[in-house]
């Protein structure tokens, strides 16, 4: 966000959103167990409820938790299923795919690789910060 806004210019163009196309990093080392890529980015304000996660990556961590990162830009995911990733490794680019109204990344830690059935686990960053639903965060 800049000056309380998530975009500058035409709100109907993804390119107007500050987050669109920005790199998305792995939150913690682990193994990529699922990726979906190739779904088109929405026109801002429109949704794709048939594919709620849009383009996404699921990472399994050593502690039995799963990171789920959703709404990547079409054809931007750079990792493959089975690949081991390091903390901070670039996974792809922020997009507006799936059940998303504007460019952003949905980040969830779960007890299961399935975003719909897993139990959400509270996120805690290295600096001790614990974000809550809907909060904007940055590195």
From TrEMBL:
It comes from the Bacteria. Residues 20-111 form the M23ase beta-sheet core domain. Its EC number is 3.4.-.-. GO terms for molecular function: hydrolase activity. CDD domains: M23_peptidase. It holds the Pfam family Peptidase_M23. SUPFAM superfamilies: Duplicated hybrid motif. Keywords: Hydrolase. PANTHER family: MUREIN HYDROLASE ACTIVATOR ENVC, PEPTIDASE-RELATED. This is M23 family metallopeptidase. It comes from Metabacillus sediminis.
